[in-house]
Amino acid sequence: MSSLRNAISRRAHKERAQPSSRKKFGLLEKHKDYVVRAKAFHKKEDTIRKLKEKAAFRNPDEFYFQMIKTRTVDGVHKPENQANKYTQEELMLMKTQDIGYILQKLQSERKKVEKLTAVLHSVDNHPSNRHIYYAEDREEARELQSHASETSVTPPSSYVPDHIKRKTASSYRELDARKSRVNQLEKLYMEMSLKKELQKNGRKRKLREDELTCPASKPVYKWRSERKR
Fold first, then answer.
1. What would the pLDDT profile of 96-144 be if each residue is shown by its tens digit?
2. In terms of pLDDT, which residue wins out, 214 or 2?
3. Which end of the chain, N or C, is surrounded by fewer C-beta atoms within 10 Å?
4. Helical residues (DSSP H) of the chain, grouped into ranges
5. How many CB atoms neighbour CB 207 within 10 A?
């Protein structure tokens, strides 16, 4: 019965549009639009009611530490400055962990570059099929030459399929991307190591340009020599 009921054509009832005399008020609100607007309105009403109940039943002697760690500015709670949240030892430990992670990624990328370079090198350089035989006399040399001519194989064709060429080109692009990533990780590792060393104790100063033996784009620091007991 359901298939027969669906086979009968029905009239498509269209919703009434906004009359031309009320075009200035925009689109005519449909029932589904009213449902969404009513749900949002009642949700806001419930939130305000709950907040009023919390304020009415609030304990005036209640205390929690966030009261002294925040301040009100124009009716908005703002937390205090968290700049000195960690101690110097904790910051040094986090720096060490970050440097260890960067070093691990750098070593992993270097191994991948070496492996990919070796594979591409073996693909580009085909091994030669030439063999060197050593004979004791001329008669043995003739026998070896006749045997080699009989077992000679036609050299492989230089034709390379298109899918192999595409894979090789993709591998070369991957190699270039990994090399650039290695360079970026090396720069990041050097910068983080320098920042970590600058946070350590000890007198140090930044060298001027006239004090440098070879010019460098990055700042160079010199530590004062200290006697270690």
1. 888 889 899 999 999 999 998 888 876 666 555 566 777 788 888 888 8
2. 214
3. C
4. 2-7, 31-56, 66-69, 88-124, 138-150, 162-199
5. 13
Q: Which residues contact 17 (CB under 8 A, 6 or more apart)?
A: 28
Judge contact between 196 and 183, C-beta under 8 A. no
User: What's the rounded mean pLDDT across residues 83-108?
Assistant: 82
Alpha-carbon span 31 to 15, nearest angstrom: 10
For residue 29, which phi and psi values (nearest 5 degrees)?
-70, 130
Residue 177 φ/ψ, nearest 5 degrees: -65, -40
Which uninterrupted H or E stretch holds 71? strand 70-73
Contacts of 178 (CB under 8 A, 6+ apart): 109, 112, 113, 116
Whether the model pTM is above 0.85: no
**Structure tokens given for 193:** 């190591």
Q: CA 60 to CA 83: how far, in whole Å? A: 32
Side chain identity, residue 104: Q
Single-letter amino acid code for the residue at 108: S
